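Design a sequence for this backbone.
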């Protein structure tokens, strides 16, 4: 058997063509064999541009290809679960872009499909295996900053294009689904717990009806996380992790650049300005390459995936609770029935 896993890609989304596919092609364990679009000419152009051997004019044709072992799904959010299920039922392993679903109910249906078909399914939180996050989590486990009590995060960009899928409510658009899911995920990851309750404020765009500024407090047993995400603020991202004896700051936590080093700051608080913080610089790497190779290696070696689907269900439960809180003006409890 070929060491490299043969991948197929459903759709010619910008993130796939410009970021993920080129990164996968640089991997040691991954090979992109085929790409599909509902417009054959688009698939053919992408295949020619990226050196992909096969191009299909429908997703169904790609899923029927016996050479394809795993599927990467960069489709709009509302199509994630339907096509993940179809791919799994075709016997393909699935790496699906975040958010993996639009509801907890959908996420559980995906979990049941995984268990029924026996394939691997993972939500593409590529940050989980980036060296900067691995080091930060190691520091927390080692007690480098004392017990973590508070997390603060921001993730913003500005996009008022009404035709963009991020601004279309029916497609699962909005700040919380598109980028807030990262802040929920990393908060859960840092504390290693699930929030007992959440409180949120949401500003909705009157034209798109999507959330454009969402702020939330997640109350964990060990502390709390406070974050804001927005599709209509100046582009910015940062995560601050506060312990009782130190602080970790992740400079570019989510869109880690593949063409320059990343940095985190570890600060003991002696100088409140942070000027004395230790700066850790990480060699250039592409988190999409790491993500695909770890998934492919998991297929070949039968190991566990870095981002378990059960955790994705719980992430969606927190997102649902945030939406409920914004409507009720009350604290809401994340709820998962059937997990």
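Sequence:
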């Amino acid at each position: 058997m070929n060491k490299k896993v043969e991948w197929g890609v459903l759709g010619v989304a910008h993130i796939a063509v410009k970021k993920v596919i080129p990164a996968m092609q640089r991997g040691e364990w991954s090979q992109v064999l085929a790409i599909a679009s509902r417009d054959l000419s688009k698939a053919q152009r992408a295949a020619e541009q990226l050196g992909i051997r096969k191009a299909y004019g429908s997703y169904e044709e790609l899923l029927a290809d016996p050479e394809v072992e795993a599927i990467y799904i960069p489709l709009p959010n509302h199509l994630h679960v339907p096509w993940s299920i179809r791919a799994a039922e075709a016997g393909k392993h699935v790496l699906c872009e975040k958010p993996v679903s639009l509801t907890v109910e959908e996420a559980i249906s995906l979990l049941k499909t995984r268990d029924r078909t026996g394939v691997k399914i993972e939500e593409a939180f590529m940050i989980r295996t980036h060296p900067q996050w691995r080091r930060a989590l190691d520091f927390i486990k080692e007690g480098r900053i004392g017990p973590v009590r508070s997390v603060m995060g921001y993730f913003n960009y500005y996009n008022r294009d009404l035709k963009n899928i991020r601004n279309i409510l029916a497609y699962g658009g909005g700040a919380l689904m598109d980028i807030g899911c990262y802040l929920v995920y990393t908060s859960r990851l840092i504390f290693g717990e699930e929030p007992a309750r959440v409180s949120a404020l949401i500003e909705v765009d009157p034209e798109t009806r999507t959330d454009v500024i969402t702020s939330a407090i997640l109350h964990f047993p060990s502390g709390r996380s406070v974050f804001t995400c927005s599709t209509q603020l100046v582009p910015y991202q940062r995560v601050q992790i506060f312990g009782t004896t130190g602080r970790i700051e992740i400079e570019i936590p989510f869109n880690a650049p593949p063409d320059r080093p990343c940095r985190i700051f570890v600060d003991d608080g002696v100088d409140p300005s942070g000027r004395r913080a230790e700066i850790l610089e990480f060699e250039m790497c592409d988190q999409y390459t790491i993500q695909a190779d770890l998934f492919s290696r998991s297929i070949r070696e039968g190991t566990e995936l870095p981002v378990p689907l059960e955790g994705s269900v719980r992430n969606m439960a927190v997102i649902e609770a945030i939406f409920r809180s914004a409507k009720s003006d009350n604290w809401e409890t994340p709820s998962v029935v059937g997990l």
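The longest strand covers residues 232-243.
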